[in-house]
Design a protein that fits this description.
10 helices, single chain, 2 domains, Quinone Oxidoreductase, Chain A, domain 1, alpha/beta, Rossmann fold, 7-stranded mixed sheet, 13 strands, 6-stranded parallel sheet, 26% strand
Amino acid sequence: MRVEDIPVPQPNSDEIRIRVVAAGINPIDWKIRKGLIKLPLPLTMGLDVSGTVDAVGTRVDRFHPGDQVFAKALPKQGGYAEYTIVKDSQAALKPMSVGFVEAAAVPTAGLTAWQMLFDIAGLKSNQKVLIHGAAGGVGSFALQFAKWKGAYTIGTASAGNLDFIKRLGADKLIDYRAQKFEYILHDLDVVIDTVGGDTFDRSWKVLRPGGFLVTTVANITGGSAELNGVQARLIVSQANGNELAQIAQLIDQKIIKPAVTVVLPFKEAWKGQELSESGHARGKMVLRVAEDPV
């Protein structure tokens, strides 16, 4: 990665231009950089942005210059920049109870957790849900969403993160290094997997018949869900301004809190990607691109 000057982008008729204050860091960023996800290069990285609307397209009536917004961008749109362009359907008004840095932590992780739990698994009150990697970006949101929905929440994390996920609302804590979750759990309604590998493979047996396993990372081989009598999906989260607006409302109601643990200056994006790649990040990491507008 390198920092360089490029032209300021111009919005099309259904787009808004955001003057970026903060940008979130996500695992997909380093995966694109390393070539694990194939996209044409060079490109401006970053999916999560918060800032102020700077210009709007001719068909946009949801937003106006000066509005404080947050959005999930597409990889080709690029959030690691002073300005970015998104369709108006990708954005929502920023939660007013938090700053731009916290808002930038929400879109990708928040939408991924929301879509895993509600759009795919259809989580309901009083169901039991296991969240692997509960201290991470997606996991920390999934834990809070599931708790808000009235589910019984179980989180796996390292010993050093157990207190952290307890504060987020985990009803049962599992130190994944010291305990085999498949020996102590059974008949769960939903498993949220952000870890993959052996953790994903061992998750089949803890679900009830017809339960749902949703993963962000694992390939689901043909017939494996049917063989285990459950349902399974690999998710690629979608930008959705309406769902972001619902999440913003929960944040302003103090039901959900973005768990920002690392804030870096814009030119140190590489540090955030290294930490994300290590697989041991807690909560969310954010780049501060500019000072808050006066």
